[in-house]
Amino acid sequence: MVLLDIRDLDLSIARGGELLPVVQGISFTVEENETLGIVGESGCGKSLTALAIMGLLEGSAVRIAGGSIHFQGRNLLALAPVERRRVMGERMAMIFQEPMTSLNPVYRIGDQIGEAILQHRRMSRKQVHERVLELLDLVRIPDPERLIDSFPHQMSGGQRQRVMIAMALACDPKLLIADEPTTALDVTVQKDVLELMHSLQTRTGMSIVLISHDLAVIAETCDKVAVMYRGRIVEHAATSALFSNMSHPYTLGLLGSIPAHDQDVEWLDAIPGRVPTLDELISGCAFHPRCFAAKDSCRTVDPVAAAVAPAHFVRCHFPQGNST
């Protein structure tokens, strides 16, 4: 059953008296107990899409210019602010990129997790305290009775990330959005956090939207993948289908930039150039200035998403995979 359904989502940012498009025509679904990975370089619109889903763009320069966000059959964009806040934190929650900047440095972690519970549940202080201890144990924080009174700076990076996960799970959400949850962690701790999220998903049945710039992480953890470039999804497929038949040159470039564990290399492959800024006007396909397969039509005609295999869509004039 579909839990989250996003259709033709457009986001624009107000700058210099005009609205510049930053996310254009984003569409995807997330089913119950499913993990969707959204991957792409920094500046591609991944985090803005997540903030739009959570309703956290209010008061910013970013505007929702079109489209719909349906969660459990309800269009979140049509809800009053009070109704939207009831959904946030209770039925959907988000883990942000850097826990040290997301946690309040002057409050104990037990109080911060407890506040999330009190916002959505009618519970006594004793019940909240017991629930916080239960959550800390659930996310494998050692000695929770002692660490419940710790401040964020007294904990390691991995422990702080586990606290963020505990806070997100406080009200048993149906959807968890994890925005680069392992970026600031070393490889060993990264693996532990990803395994923890998977085990919690198995235990609770929640769905996950995992945002990352790392295709290797996406390959290991996700059921479906959406590859984003400059505010658009350029390739979308089941994980197995995408990795067996990568079709967009950008996706191939992301894969090529991952170092092989069994080879010694002096230089890593990299996609040439950079993600264009909002002010740069590019005709045709936005990726063509960096694309090894670009032809004249790529410079003048914007491609539309088309199927290269069942449920495998690519926005490219000349897909590189085994098209059918």
SSE topology:
Layout lengths: L1 E14 L2 E14 L3 E5 L6 H9 L7 E10 L2 E2 L5 H7 L4 E4 L3 H4 L6 H10 L6 H14 L5 H4 L9 H12 L6 E5 L7 H18 L2 E6 L2 H7 L2 E6 L2 E7 H6 L4 H8 L39 H5 L4 E5 L2 E4 L9
Helix pairs in contact: 4-5, 4-7, 5-7, 7-8
Briefly summarize what is shown.
This protein is α/β, with parallel strands linked by helices and 324 residues long. The protein has a domain at 2-99 and 176-222: Rossmann fold (3-Layer(aba) Sandwich).
> What's the count of strands?
12
- Distance N terminus to C terminus? 28 Å
Shape: globular
CATH level 1 class label of the domain at 2-99 and 176-222: Alpha Beta
Mean of residue pLDDT?
89
In the CATH hierarchy, the architecture of the domain at 2-99 and 176-222 is 3-Layer(aba) Sandwich
The fold-level CATH name of the domain at 2-99 and 176-222 is Rossmann fold
The chain-level structural class is: alpha/beta
Which sequence of SSEs, written as H and E, runs from N to C?
EEEHEEHEHHHHHEHEHEEHHHEE
CATH homologous superfamily heading of the domain at 2-99 and 176-222: P-loop containing nucleotide triphosphate hydrolases
| Rg measurement, Å | 21 Å
Share of residues in helices = 25-40%
Model regions low in confidence, pLDDT < 50 over at least 5 residues? none
Largest sheet: 8 strands, mixed
Q: What topology, given as strand order, has the largest sheet?
A: 6-7-8-3-9-10-12-11
* SS field, number of helical segments: 12
